């Protein structure tokens, strides 16, 4: 029974986490915040990982008790082996390994996708209020100055702009970024929320149209991170897995102590990006930036490399 619980919870955890990770990775830039169902799926997947580990530890306790009874009974039948013998053929074992490996680059790149789509506090507030993109006319320019690179070359300009919207209303864009020095009567793209004009408008160097597009997408920096982490995991983990025997991989998959590390790490990583998934207590971009650029990838790489090495050395 405990073996079946471990198996079913493993399949359920993989399914829930796969859907949550793929869904979150491709969220549109215009999404005010991820849907509540995404966070629920992630929590469900992590919870099932914990259920699997509990089942593995319980099965170990049951085996020990049986071993004691067998040692006290003459002519007793040999006690059941520690590792289930079903689904232990090499194709099954390697299929499970591949299924997990496919999720690792996506999981490592997930914070980067959330970070890229966030846009910062000002954009986040506009999206929550129903941001729209408009073509506005500059009617006033103050505090305009050029921004130079390390060589002293002006790369772009920043200024506070007073804008006239198509409907005649006026709105201010503070800290607006433009590639050329802004002047009255210039036409520029601005992001604002009609329901919350007090938030002002945002004018940036990038493509503001992204922040009104809620379609699932894989492009830009998130695509680069996915490919980069894919190569990293391929180079560091796959050689050990390919060198390990299927029996060793199957054995490690049923070791409670080794497998406990997975739900522990998954819980910590989920808590790390919980503000971005729920929209609650979102602080500065520092924390999610660290998670995006190695904070997720490094512990995942260390854990699964360690598990592969243990299977190889057994």
Textual characterization of the structure:
This protein is α+β, with helices and mostly antiparallel strands. A four-stranded antiparallel sheet has the order 3-2-1-4, with helices on one face. Residues 76-80 have low confidence and may be disordered. The chain is built from ten helices and four strands. The protein starts with a helix and ends with a helix. It has helices at residues 2-25, 36-72, 90-118, 120-128, 220-236, 238-243, 246-253, 256-278, 286-295, 297-313, and strands at 132-148, 154-164, 170-178, 187-192. The protein has two domains: 2-119 and 214-313, no CATH class; 123-212, OB fold (Dihydrolipoamide Acetyltransferase, E2P) (Beta Barrel). α3 runs antiparallel to α5, α3 packs antiparallel against α10 (297-313) and α7 (246-253) crosses α10.
Keyword list:
314 residues; 10 helices; OB fold (Dihydrolipoamide Acetyltransferase, E2P); elongated; alpha+beta; 2 domains
Quick structural overview:
The chain has 314 residues and is α+β, with helices and mostly antiparallel strands.
């Amino acid at each position: 029974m405990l073996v079946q619980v471990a198996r079913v919870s493993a399949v359920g955890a993989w399914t829930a986490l796969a859907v949550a990770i793929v869904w979150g990775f491709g969220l549109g830039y215009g999404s005010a915040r991820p849907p509540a169902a995404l966070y629920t799926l992630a929590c469900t997947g992590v919870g099932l990982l914990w259920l699997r580990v509990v089942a593995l530890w319980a099965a170990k306790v049951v085996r020990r008790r049986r071993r004691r009874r067998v040692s006290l009974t003459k002519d007793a039948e040999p006690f059941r082996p520690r590792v289930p013998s079903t689904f232990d053929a090499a194709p099954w074992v390697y299929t499970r390994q591949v299924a997990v490996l496919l999720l690792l680059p996506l999981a490592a790149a997930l914070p980067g996708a959330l970070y890229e789509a966030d846009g910062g506090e000002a954009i986040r507030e506009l999206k929550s209020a129903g941001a729209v993109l408009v073509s506005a006319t500059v009617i006033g320019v103050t505090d305009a100055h050029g921004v130079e690179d390390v060589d002293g070359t002006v790369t772009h300009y920043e200024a506070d702009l007073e804008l006239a919207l198509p409907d005649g209303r006026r709105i201010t864009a503070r800290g607006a970024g433009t590639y050329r020095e802004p002047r009255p009567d210039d036409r520029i793209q601005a992001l604002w929320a009609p329901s919350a004009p007090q938030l002002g408008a945002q004018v940036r160097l990038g493509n503001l149209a992204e922040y009104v597009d809620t379609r699932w997408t894989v492009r830009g920096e998130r695509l680069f991170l996915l490919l980069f982490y894919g190569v990293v995991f391929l180079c560091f983990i796959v050689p050990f897995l390919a060198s390990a025997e299927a029996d060793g991989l199957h054995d490690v998959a049923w070791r409670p102590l080794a497998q406990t590390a997975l739900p522990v790490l998954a819980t910590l990583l989920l808590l790390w990006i919980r503000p971005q998934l729920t929209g609650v207590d979102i602080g500065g971009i520092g924390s999610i930036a660290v998670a995006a650029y190695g904070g997720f990838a490094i512990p995942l790489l260390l854990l699964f490399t360690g598990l592969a090495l243990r299977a190889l050395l057994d």
